[in-house]
Design a protein that fits this description.
homodimer; 345 residues; 19% strand
Chain lengths: 345, 345
Amino acid sequence: MRGGIDLGGTKIQAVVVDSKWNVVGQSRHPTPTKGKPAGVANEMANALREAAAEAGIEPGDLTSAGVGSPGDVDESTGSVSQARNLPGWEGTFETGPWLADALGTQVFVGNDVGVATEAEAKLGAGRDYNSLIGVFWGTGVGGGIILNGKPWLGRGAAGEIGHMVVKMDGARCTCGRRGCMEAYAGRAAMEIEARKRQKKGAKTDLFKIMEKRDRDRLTSGIWARALKAEDPLAKELIDRAVEALGAGVASAVNLLDVEAVIIGGGLGVRFGEPYVKRIRKAMMPHLFSDKNPPAIEVAALGDFGGGIGAALLASNREKKPSRRTRAKADAASGDGAAAGAETPA
Amino acid sequence: MRGGIDLGGTKIQAVVVDSKWNVVGQSRHPTPTKGKPAGVANEMANALREAAAEAGIEPGDLTSAGVGSPGDVDESTGSVSQARNLPGWEGTFETGPWLADALGTQVFVGNDVGVATEAEAKLGAGRDYNSLIGVFWGTGVGGGIILNGKPWLGRGAAGEIGHMVVKMDGARCTCGRRGCMEAYAGRAAMEIEARKRQKKGAKTDLFKIMEKRDRDRLTSGIWARALKAEDPLAKELIDRAVEALGAGVASAVNLLDVEAVIIGGGLGVRFGEPYVKRIRKAMMPHLFSDKNPPAIEVAALGDFGGGIGAALLASNREKKPSRRTRAKADAASGDGAAAGAETPA
């Protein structure tokens, strides 16, 4: 069995998967909003311990564990730098080594959006496609690109679909720039806009719902509740987000002409099919080859996609025992399937 | 020797190249604004005949000829459908067979932007890069993508960088949509805007220059002259185009993180280095990885890039004589280099 941790701006989702990538244990914690990287890492370790407990094993018995992290990830060392949306993470933190020490197993760290995209491409909604864009609609809007069945990383920084410009001189983005898709569609930017509008007198129950649910930020669940209650500000800001997503996704498809677009992320998964249909509708007027639109689908692995992707990364990176050692281990443990598990093609 | 024809919305550029891709003959005709596809094809044939004459050979003695065409190109048959910006070309015209018949040599047809991008990637400003985007700033704004040294075509329609959305609810594009980069930066859209503004009373000499030079549209040369004369409307519309190009190119780079961006096309080549620098400056504020910007360069093959690319396409597609036949032909013609020419790696 392997562990996977998806570190998001809002939540930490840990999973334990078996050799067939079924989730056999999981745990979800809110991402700390204060403190230092070690505090966040401690919360990640706790989440994975709970997921392991649910799967009936000790973390130290996991073959390996993976982490999908925001920020600049050095895959070779497991260190993470400049993870904005995470508290006190302007510098570099040795996420991989810290967790390996805390959990007692090998830990590999990859880019959050990258591992989630590969999980969808290999095991999820993207299985039938050779080229796709993964759009992760959450605290920010992340993107992952698969071309000819393989991740396209550019010089290491490809996939910043959230920072494609959909409106020159437009809204201020959390990245400091103007008019990015994320400035309209990212959960963090939407919350800033909601607070600003409320201050200016806009009527909304968004923050009442937040307090009632004992949260300190507008999570995807709060947005969903407000929409259900037909809160006018929530409706307006989500409509605005959908329009921006439609324009940005269309721009990306006009450039790359991929077979499919997979919509995931906290908001994408929470809102699901009806909103993916709305994004599709918002995309169509901007699509150049509108007679041949790409498939647009909800991420099939849902909230677990990032964690499963992190476990997939670990499986690809871990030091495999030699055949002889493995045969011995299999004989000793009787767990041939798990020990011999390989990444699916 | 091989022929290459670049069919643009404003001009037809024909070249004849030797086995080392040097241009040894060329001719340029304005693209007819009226008539049927056969009229345009006739003008293409005339241009290539003149280029051949300059090179001192008959068109029928060319090893082959290529055409870079706008519209939907069927490479297998050489037919072209729905070439907007060309007169009466809503249906399908058998460009390849028509020209082969008129010129007496094999003719192959490819996508205009695709062949120009490959020419820059293999022989021009992109030679040193493994991944690049070609941006052809002319009547429209076309894009070509090279990833891992190979063209990325998607499902056949990739590269529509001109129709990436840079301003939601923005200016009307010649494609009918709103807010496309081309709606601000395409020569055709800029001309429509200039006429509209002049009607509303804006002061400009753009149309006087046009009449004086006996033209019926605002060619890149006319824009250049107006800028030199510090025409305020020309300056304003070109500034607007540069801003849109900066935003659109940044969006594409944020998504793909390529090594280089090559700026070509009628306006790109005419304005050259100073404007490529301005596009770079307009891109920077939108670039997510702004510490690691791509190289931005002027298309090195200039106005001949499309034609050379078309000849390159022909060379890749033509039926090569068998070794034995070739040896015989070489012995007979004494032109071993040309007959044995291969596409450069």
